[in-house]
Amino acid sequence: MESSIHITVYNLRNTQGHVLLSVFKSEDGFPNNPAKAVKLVKSKITGDKVEIVLDNMPVGDYAISVMHDENDNGKMDTGAFGIPKEGYGASNDAKAVLGPPSYKDAHFDHQQSTSLKIKMKYF
């Protein structure tokens, strides 16, 4: 069975670059290795939020990570001590504590049409 996942990414600080969204089926690669994601989306920013619809997603357990790639280089830019210079977020608004959010905190069960809101966070 398949259905849609509707994602609203909000709290974007500007319209530079793109929002990069990665969908993971397991903790392998989550949240920083998009090569391990089952789906990738690059979305243009036109305001302080972005709406993304993932159609035909099989039911199951997923976690989503997002980043605001302000300079469009395709990766998270970090500063001292690995602190992100660009925005980041995860499903369930999973917290990053001394490292990236965990799959355990970000995963959700997609059975029918699912709606998620993810707050973009900045340091």
From TrEMBL:
InterPro entries: DUF2141 (IPR018673). This is DUF2141 domain-containing protein.
